[in-house]
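Budget justification note: compute hours in this period were largely spent on complex prediction jobs such as the one shown. Inputs:
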Amino acid sequence: MAVPVSQMYTVATYVLTQKLKGVKRYPLVLMLEPLFRCNLACAGCGKIQYPDHVLDKRLTPEQCWSAAEECGAPMVSIPGGEPLIHPEMPEIVRGLVARKKYVYLCTNAILLERKLDEYAPSKYLTFSIHMDGLRQEHDLAVCRDGVYDVAVRAIRAALKRGFRVTTNTTLFDDANPERVRAFFDEMMTVGVEGMMISPGYSYQKAPDQQNFLKRKKTRELFARILGNRKRTWRFNQSPLFLEFLMGKREYQCTPWGNPTYNIFGWQKPCYLLQDGYTRTFQELLNDTEWDRYGTGRNEKCADCMVHCGYEASAVEDTFGSWSGFGRTIKTTVMPNVQ
Amino acid sequence: MTDSKYHTPEASSLEGRVFRPATANELAEAVELAFDYRGDVTLQLQSGETIEGYLFNRDSTGVRPSVQIYPKGSQGIRQVLYAEVATIAFTGKDTAFGQSWEAWVAKKSSQRRAEAQEATAAAKARGHL
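Corresponding output:
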């Protein structure tokens, strides 16, 4: 099992509590973006194109803690930009851990080995390493040679010191399934706790037939990658989300499950789309016209199958009914059974 | 997972354009363009004051629609009512233009190498490598 029992228990009790309270929209993972500055310039990355004076802005530790408390999600994912550039990141993480949040610190790992001393191993802290495939694919994706080797070295160093380490991988339609499977083997050999995968987000104006084919193509890709799954592979995400990626089940997007907070405020409606910002989490929940977003409702959402929209939907499915819970158990134990 | 790749066709950029809206609808449209723009804009207000900065938010609803800007070279956020805006100029570099994955793939490998080296040098200069 990739996710520790204590974390599963925390998430399960949190979700069940929300359901008992009758809360319709609840956050599961806070996407906390403390800065947009990065030390890579990956081609096509939609997160780092801002004027320099905006890239120089950062959330303070107090703003980060306040956002975590305000939204109340049991897990906090810290993407960016590159979080390890933030000089106060160790303090931010310490504060979140003290609040018993399960923190996924997403990093390209270029600075990780150098910064490990500034962090303490904890069940609440996971370094989530950006790895988009084997050496060739990853270095191409991040537009810099040598990054894969640096990241693998950093993963090994972090594991040696007792840190929890996972990988996060974004896959596009041009991915080679066999190479991705070989990458999974490699990461398991390196010894990461689990892997997270998601299709990348792409959006083309003027929806046409090709857009529908794109979603179909994404499912075919993931069916080929995750079909006949090896027992040795461990994934640090909902098994039903993986089934969704393979086209085995349908979900509607639940963007409030992964609310995003950054230097602009609470982002409407999700981590990927920027339709405006609110000052408070409650305003985000109240003021966002949620029905305008999701598959079949918005052209920008037509192709999206990204984790930040659909993983919370899969978790909701797990805890929404006994049959959902049963499906989750079955998929976890027997991932290759139809 | 921090990647969200732009696959949007990039025919042109608004960089350098100036909008002088004549009606409330034109103003609302210009504000939307400025909100989507990944560079600084310069607002000239009816009072004659100019504000250069990154327009990151707008609220077009309600009685007093307004925009929010991070002014360049100063701390804090400036809120400006739509009614105060006379012109919107796209004065800053469009940082997203030409940054799509397709644009990168289409470049010659020498050009890609040069850009990668430039990005590495910039990160080193800031002490981020």
